[in-house]
Structures are given as C-alpha cells and as structure tokens.
What we know:
This protein is 81% helix and 0% strand. It is mainly α.
Amino acid sequence: MNSIKLSYFKAATLSIKHYSNAFVYINKHGLKKYYVYTSIFALVLFSLIFYACLFLGNTTIDTVSSLGFISEFKASLSDYSPETIDRIIYWTLFVFIGIPIFLTGIFVFPVLLGSLTVPIQDTLTQKVLQISYQQEVDDRFNFKRLVHLFIKVSIPNALKSLLYSLILLPLTFIPIIGIIFMVISLGINSYYLGFGIMDNYFEYWNVDVDKSKKFIQRHKSMSTSIGMGGGLLAMIPILGGIIAPITSVVAGGLMMKDLNVYDQFNQE
C-alpha cells in the first residue's frame, strides 16, 4: 500500500476487519490469559465510574427538580397523584440528564482503563511484535520506560479525554441534537485510545515520542478507527471492559502491519 492516508470510512472498514481477526488471533496464539489480567482493573474501574455517574445523575436531577419551572409544571398536572407526577418528572429528567451522564462515563471508561493497564498492554504489544512482526523485543519489565510512557502519553491523553467529555456533557442534554455530541465524544475518546496503542508500537520501534505524536496526529483517522472498536466493545457492561483493551492492542497491531505503518513512517 503506497499511502496510509485513509478516509474515515476506509479506516472504519479496516477496523471492523482487524477487530474480527483479533479474536481469532488471540485464541490461536494463546493470549486469552491477558483478558484475566485486565478483568480486575476493569471491574474496579467500572464500579467506580458507575457509582460516580449514579451520584452525579441523581444530584443533578434533584437540583433540576427543585427549580421553579418544574414546580409550576407539577402544579399543572393536578389530574394525577403526587407520586405519579414525581415518577413522570424523575424518568423524564433521567432520559435527558441521567442517560447522557452514564454514556459519557462509558465513553471515558476505555481511555481510563487503557491508562491503568499500560503494563499489561505493553507485554501484549511485545507478543504481537514477536509473533506478527518477527521482531526481537526485551521481555523484561522496564519500569523507567513505562513511567516515561505514563507521563508523556497515557496520563495527558486520559486527562484530555476526560476534559473534552466534561465539556461536551452539557451539550448532550439537548434533545435530539444531543446525540450528535455523544457521537463526537465517542470519536474523541476513540482517538485518544487509539493514540496510546499506536504510540506503544512506535516505542518498540525506537521512535521518539514527539515524532510518534506528530505522526499519529497526521493520521487521526487511523488512530480513531483503532480506538473506536475498543470504545464500542467497552460499552458492553463489565464484559466489554475486560476484552476491549486486549483486543484493541492486537487489532491495532494487525491494522498497522496491514498498512505497513513502520515503513511508511520512515518514508514520510
């Protein structure tokens, strides 16, 4: 392939292909144990995000319910019992406030989980490089390199993802068009998830972090498509959080190999 400049449609098509292949690849090469490694982190983080979203959602709904126009609306529903009115108000506000908050938490989840499981993903990246790229890599745990990766890539990406999600969160409350902002939030979080995966492969190719960042920023469609599959998988409650990080690393490696990213990088 002479160029890795991809349209988002083409990148999405390749993403579907390689995520499908990733499940077969993981089973074939005995990599399912990595699912077990990520499960503890996934369960703990999912629980924390769930309860945080539940608290924030209920607090926001209670605050809005106490506003004057809500009280006036309740007074206009005199034909119904107070319990029925409260139930109608709560579930209406839950649809327009609670659900967007939970969806935002779900979108942020894979990026935060990816940051927490960097050491696990790092060893899996080594396996993919050894199996598919026939690249000799050092299996020893390199704490200094991982700290550098956390500081330069993982933590900044997680914070940016969380910041953008919080900025977009109020816009998702807007009826109908709020769906558009949810999609934008998913796209942004997918980009940062894919960013971390691609950068880790570049780390093993001895590419400077700053050069890696510039390359990934020039190929946002590739990074987004790599992360999108993981982001969608992570939306499956609990199970998705367990399989998403591992499948994303493998799918990302397969996609980068298919596109001959390493050689293309050296030619740019």
